[in-house]
Structure formats: C-alpha cells, structure tokens
Design goal:
39% of the residues lie in helices and 20% in strands. The protein has 15 helices and 15 strands. It has a six-stranded mixed beta sheet, with helices on both faces. It is globular, with a radius of gyration of 21 Å. The chain starts with a helix and ends in a 7-residue tail after the last strand.
Length: 452
C-alpha cells in the first residue's frame, strides 16, 4: 500500500517530473536508501500465456529464486519514471515466471531506490549484489546514475543492463555494462530522417534542455538533419533550472523555421507546450519531439489536458511525433504475449491500482523496454550451466541476437544494441488516456545512429 500511495502521489505531482535521461542535482543522503525488498508475486496472475499451451500447468520452483537487481528512482524528482519502471519490472518478472522462469527456477526482484541521486545509485548497486545476491543489475535510467553504477559493476564483475537509451561512451568506456536500450544517437538521428524525408521540413529551430541528456539527444538529430540537406536555423539551450520558457518560444517563433524541434522535460515541457499555444505559435509553426521521455509521454498530455485541453486538441490535430523503442501498437509475437498478459494482469495482487495503467501499456517505452530486458536476461541465463554466474552471464549477453516486444535486438562489439527505432504519433484512446501509435519503423539501427 505504501508503494501504491507513492506511485499515486508521484503521478499527480507532475510539476516535479523530469526526463528519464537527465541527471539530477539532488543531494539525497545515501544512508536513506530504501531496504532491498523481494517484490516477486506468485499470485499476480495465475493464467498461463505466451509460448506455453494454456492447458499446461507450469511447475516453477520459488524456493531458491534467481535474484534480478533493479535500481529505480522511487522518490525524488524522478519518482514518476522510477515507479512506472518498478511496476513494469514486477509485471515482466511475473510474466516470465508464469511461463517457466529460468529452466523451471523462479525469478525474484531485489529493488533499491536511487532517490534521484547518482551517489545513492552506486550504493544501491553495491547493496543489491552484496546484500541481496543479485547476479545482474537492471537500470538505472538516468545518465549520471548509469556512470556511477558502471564503476561498481566493473569492480564487482556483475553485468549492469541498461534498458533505455544511453550515450555510447557510458557503455564503451565501462566493462560489465550492456547497453540493451541502445544509444541516444539512434533516437535523434532517426527522428531527423523522419522530419526531413517524411514530414518535409527543410528548416528547423531547436529548443533543448541544457544538460547531458539534452545534448546527447539533440546533437545527433542536428548532425543527421544537416547531413540530409536540412538547415538548423537556430539552437536554443534552456537551463535546467529555468521555469519560464516564454522567451525561448518567442525566439524560436521569430526564427522563421518550418518546425520547432524540442526536448525539455517535466514541468519545463508542460510550460513550453503552453507557451507554444498561448503565444499563437501553434498557428504557424508545428512543434515536434527530439525524443519522447519527459516531453511527449502520457503524463505530459494528462497535465496539459487538466490545465487547458485546447493545447492538447491543437497539438494532436497538428500531429505530434517522437522516436521511441516501444509502443503498444507494435505487431510482433512478443508484444502480442505482453498485451494478452497485460489485459488479465492482477495489479491488486502486487499492491497497485489497475486504473493507473489502463487496458494497454501506458504511453511510455517502459513496459516494452523492461519486458525486453528481462526476456534477454532470462533467455541468456537458460544457456548457462549456472544461471547465477555473473561473469558467464556478462560474456553471453554480448552475443545476444533475439526478437523482443520492441523488435529485433543484437549486441554489437561496443556492447550496445542494434535495434529497431519506431516513430510514433501521440494519440488519445477511447478511454481518454494518451498513448503512442507506430507510424514508421527504422529497422536494425546501429548504435552509431541512423544514416542514409
């Protein structure tokens, strides 16, 4: 119940949201990190699904589970993203246990709260391995957190699997890191191709949060857009501490470009969309996303709808597009299994409210990305004599070639994923929720980024 209340509070306090790839300046005390908890539920869903026959009873041994460590921001200014990741991890582990776990041995989750603070994330990684016996760490999502965890993972020789986009250097410069979520280069570069080739924009002006996350998303987009023949009229960088983006919107509007391409997060994103509408820029210049995250994910539209539904109506009528690794509308066998299990999942059994999540995964990459990550870990563990051998697991993960709910995934020599990147359109479903629908897929995009 405490976890549910925290989830509900985080989802309603949208002014505190920031993107899952930005680096927080919080100075939370590492000693306040939450205790490791085994959150695996044997009863979350008792129906068989996926690759197994529905009439076949699957015998899974829960007496000595394989521990997956998970680092998420359950408190602090990244709590909304972290709590969604926590729910997605629980869902994925329950699903794979329902179809046999790892050769009949159940999975369990040991989870630590990074508290939206890099130093706490490193301490959390150590606790997961040394106190909870985790043989692999999944997460965290923030770039600064990842660097802190990577140092410990290399020292402990335990693989850290990052399931969302990561700067290439954060993987290649650190042993025992697997960039399963791919690189930030993939998102920006594919979006550049879509803007230029499909939407026909020849000139753009960019508005970006001036931090590591913003730079790693926008710079690849700018580079590819110019390589295609487009012109970046102006680049506007917004300090993370800036709450009023009106002057940046005025500058962007006066640039006379075909389109504004932006990536801000949380309350800044809400403010920018509001300025785009209030200043009348929406009448002349469309605004598109460099990346999804805190700029176009469902909670942004929910907040805007609550404040002024006309902003949402105008934006969605124009068409808002973003690059992402997963959307509920993907047509593949793994996603079919995910959606089937999702539709009957017993959220109450794990202490969560089903109304928070809707009938399909919410408009974020989190459910698909974590579902894919757990599948990759499970299938790789099945090939090992000892699935808890962290060194053997790390070596085996570097040879991954697998189809997931996100699409096809391979790991290249840099330990980053080559994967499908999907361009999605923001839509409002019949139940009033906001989500993404795929309009174009760029298959097997290299970690270096898309290039024609």
């Amino acid at each position: 119940m405490k976890k549910f209340l925290a989830m509900l509070l985080a989802l309603t306090m949208l002014f505190a949201l920031v993107s899952c790839s930005s680096d927080s300046d919080d100075d939370a005390d590492a000693s306040n990190s939450t205790e490791v908890t085994d959150t695996t539920s044997e009863d979350a869903n008792t129906s068989d699904s996926g690759d197994e026959d529905a009439d076949t009873e699957i015998d899974v041994d829960y007496s000595d589970p394989i521990v997956l460590g998970h680092i998420a921001d359950l408190t602090g200014n990244e709590a909304s993203t972290g709590l969604l990741a926590s729910a997605a991890m629980q869902f994925a582990v329950d699903y794979f246990n329902s179809i046999g776990g790892v050769n009949g041995r159940a999975l369990a989750i040991a989870e630590q709260d990074a508290q939206s603070d890099s130093s706490v994330a490193a301490t959390a990684a150590q606790s997961l391995v040394e106190s909870s016996g985790a043989s692999v760490i999944l997460g965290p999502t923030q770039i600064g957190h990842k660097s802190a965890v990577a140092a410990y993972a290399a020292d402990a020789e335990v693989p850290a699997v990052y399931y969302n986009g990561t700067p290439s250097a954060a993987v290649t410069n650190n042993e025992y890191v697997i960039g399963l979520g791919g690189s930030t280069n993939q998102l920006g570069s594919t979006m550049a191709a879509y803007l230029y080739n499909e939407l026909g924009y020849e000139t753009i002006v960019t508005i970006t949060q001036d931090n590591t996350g913003g730079q790693n998303y926008m710079n690849p987009l700018i580079e590819e857009f110019e390589a295609l023949g487009g012109t970046v009229v102006d680049q506007l960088w917004v300090p993370s501490s800036e709450s009023d983006t009106s002057s940046y919107m005025m500058s962007a509007a006066s640039a006379g470009a075909d389109c504004i391409v932006a990536w801000l997060s949380g309350s800044q994103a809400i403010n920018l969309w509001t300025c785009w509408y209030d200043q009348g820029v929406c009448d002349s210049t469309p605004m598109q996303a460099c990346s999804h995250g805190g700029f176009t994910d469902y909670f942004i539209w929910k907040a805007l709808s609550n404040s002024n539904s006309a902003i949402v109506d105008t934006a969605l009528e124009d068409g808002v597009y973003a690059p992402i690794t997963y959307a509920y509308s993907l047509d593949n066998d793994d996603n079919d299994a995910l959606l089937e299990y999702y539709a009957s999942y017993d959220w109450a059994a794990v202490g969560l409210d089903a109304s928070t999540y809707g009938s399909v995964p919410v408009g974020s990459n989190m459910f698909g990305a974590i579902f894919a990550a757990v599948k990759v870990v499970v299938e790789t563990m099945k090939t090992l004599d000892d699935p808890t051998d962290s060194v053997a697991l790390y070596e085996a993960l570097q040879s991954v070639d697998i189809d997931t709910a996100e699409g096809h995934v391979t790991i290249d020599s840099s330990r980053l994923a080559t994967k499908d990147i999907h361009i999605v359109k923001v839509v409002q479903l019949d139940d009033g929720s906001f989500n993404y629908e795929v309009v174009k897929t760029y298959e097997d995009v290299s970690a270096d980024g898309y290039s024609e």
